[in-house]
Amino acid sequence: MPFERRGKRADEYMEALKAVWSGHEVDYQGEFVNWQGFMMRPRPAQPGGIPLVVGGVTPPAIRRTVKYGDGWYVIGKDLNEIRAHMQAFNDECARQGRDPGEPEITAYWNFYREGPESLKAYEELGIHRLLINVPAMRQQDAMTGLQYFAGEVVAQHG
Questions:
Q1: Which residues are in the Luciferase-like domain (predicted)?
Q2: Model confidence pLDDT, tens digit, residues 35-70
């Protein structure tokens, strides 16, 4: 698969999966997926199927997230970059007519650089979950980093 075609293939796979997770027999003809009379059994237990989480911050990745995604993994070097990505996401949601609060958004949080005071900004941006990089906390080892995080963030902010 040529690198340039990966987005088209991802879009088609997500569309096909959403169709088959409906519980109905599916006829789907595409460039990469060709199903006739296909039905998935057992069906996913949750309505709508297995959540599709899309990663990436390029315009095509954001369009894909808004169109097909149940979640989005957004990454940026700092809070300002995350703000810019969130603005692009909100603009695309408006363009496609989707509620920006629907997809569950996970962001990488540079705790060491931004500190606990940045939590409110992430919440205001509509981010549901933050990931931390334990080694980036600059502690002597992972356990010390986690203990530090538990005391500085979890104990004080929940």
A1: 2-135
A2: 999 999 888 888 888 999 999 999 999 999 999 999
